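TODO from last week: model KIB1-4 beta-propeller domain-containing protein.
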Amino acid sequence: MAKDSSWAYLPDDLRRLASLADRVRAAAICRPWGSAAGKLPPTRLPWVLFANGTLFDLGNDSVPHPHHRLRLPDDCWRYSAGENMMFLVHQRDGSCSLLNALSGATTRLPELAGPNRAPMKAIGKVVVSSSADGDPIIVAVLIGRDVIVSTCRPVGESNSFLLGALHHEAIDIALFQGKIYALSRGHVLETLDLSNGHQKGFKLNYSTELMIKHPWQNYHHQDFQDGFPLVKIYLAESGGKLLMVKRWLRCPWMRTASSPDAASRRTFRFEVWEADLSERRWKKLDGCLEGQALFVSRPCSKSLPAGHGVRGDSIYFLNKLYQWKQPEAPLGDSGVYKIRDKTFIPLLRDSMPSLPWKSERFPSWFFPVQF
């Protein structure tokens, strides 16, 4: 009788909660329910994370309040670091820590603080990844031409710290097959090879994987009589491949009161290139992403398989928000690009509740790992 009354024997429709926020709250106060509910297929659509810690649930955007507020320290700069993780830089002393935004677990990184360290508020990107089983978590921080690498070891063990200088100023970094890859505006791909071990720590081996640049297409004159093209570049892993995503925006020559950035900067084109590491060149991908979907934003990019609300062969994109917030474009220049037919569709539904705006530095993708 006691066995039949356990949480694990509840019907699926009772164990399943539509909102991840509800699942997180329920799991926090009832671990047996969380263990049983964790066996259900997760919602794959990521959330949108704002700088004040507000999460917007894309998978349940039709409910009255699709928001969840994270409890974050007030005295810090915050950076999305992939999945549940956030990288915090505390203003009082420059110390750094890694926060699991859903569980609240914090790992302090004292080796990143100090008078000789680079100014952490100038961070361009943070990536966090777990190596093979038993290896420590790797944290890589991009600041201009420097990549700071640290490990998150258990309490009582000292963390490893490395500072690697790149040959080219990078605009994005990614962890791929045990290496840190850094991409420059000129499409040069550099690697920092991590040779790690519990006793020996980490060692950086520098190499330039790709030096061949493909030509930039010019869309001036006939297509841009009233403006110019702006290209943003992202680096992401998808299906065992390292991809460069190029996003083309149409920008006006001059901003006006009737045409602020939120309305005038519009994405009109995407290109996806695969890094052929053996041939040391970029190969353009046309037609599909082999069923995967790419989620790109400056703070965080990732790929997911199709299904559970995720459109395959599509690129979901977010852009930095500016001070002009318009009801018809609450997330600014954001949307979904379908690669097969080269068309755009809105990211949000037509009728949306009011969204919380607290900072222009985000939004970012947030990929919750359920526990």
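Done. The two ends are 27 Å apart (CA to CA).
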